Amino acid sequence: MAVPRGIFRVDALQSLLTDLCASPVAVDRLERLEPWAVARVRLQSASALPCSVVVKWMPDGQREARSAPWRLRNELAALRFLSEDLGINLVPRVIAADTAGRFLVLEDLAPRVPLDQLLRRDGAAAHGDRLAAFARARGALSAATAGRAETYYARRAELGPVDTAADRAGRFAPLRAGAIEHASSLGVPLGGRSAHELTSALDELAAPGPFLALSNGDAEANNILLHASGPAEARLIDFEFAGYTHALSDAVCLYVPGPGWLAVGDPTTTGLADQYRRALARGIPEAEDDRRYGHGLAAACVSWTLIRLQRFALLDTRSPGDHSRLQLIATLEAAARTAQTYRTLPHLTSWIRRIAAVLRRRWPDADQDFADSTRFPPYRARH
């Protein structure tokens, strides 16, 4: 069997599974799932192992983050915490792990496929039930894990040191400062009541209170697997950046475009907002308080928007018509619209709208009507 370059050691996998089952296990076939460090592996075994598993590994690479061993530890701890400690059926089961060899053996969730593939192929209108399952799954993850941080971090600490403060802040938090500098260079400095409201928003995220819950760190449609037809049984994947943070950070993807989309639509009219909030409130009753919920959601949306705004200098060098310019303006305006809907952070909302207006003038090619659903339907892909 020809083995692709740059993957885990097949002999180490066979040895690990043979020891686990106390009987010989051989790799029959291996299919790498590009572009990720993931492969579907067909097995030959007389044991109770499934005939197919998924192997995920940490690749060697030039960027330290791509090979940092803590990412594998996060994934292993989070998946076992969810499936073994909490007993919730939202994630793949861990079959075996070799932290020294830097790979995990996971349950194969096929024939489920990533939701973003279905949305790109068919459009959002064809997958309303799967989008609803996505919203429920995000809320259910937070609901099930709220108040259980101590249990998770005890399991995580067994695998090595972990920075709980960095988890809570989020790995992109340092990028917000650059965004504020860009806004100032555009003639929209942050100050006065806007600065005060931003401090309030960031304080909310830093001290979530009852909203502290486990996130996989990348709550986007590519990290949920569902059947292309039939029951919308969702499974969440990719927990390399897992950690406890503000639960409503996981709701941002329903309101504000993520990296893959130009628009996500209005979740209040599609019903996704209610699907998410009801699932969340089953474990975090405070989610039923409109003021607390709205303030936390708006804070999370603003934080994400600043993280995206730090890309301004790069996008300013792009050619007219570049989708990333459209996406940035859509992101700013979606965050402002969310805060306005929940009647919170009014001065910060005004500041964000002014930035968007300046960018529309600076980039005439991106001065478009994002409310036009014929041109910008929900989950239109960014190219």
From TrEMBL:
Q: What InterPro entries does UniProt report for this protein, alphabetically? A: Kinase-like_dom_sf
* Superkingdom, taxonomy of origin: Bacteria
The protein in question is named Aminoglycoside phosphotransferase domain-containing protein
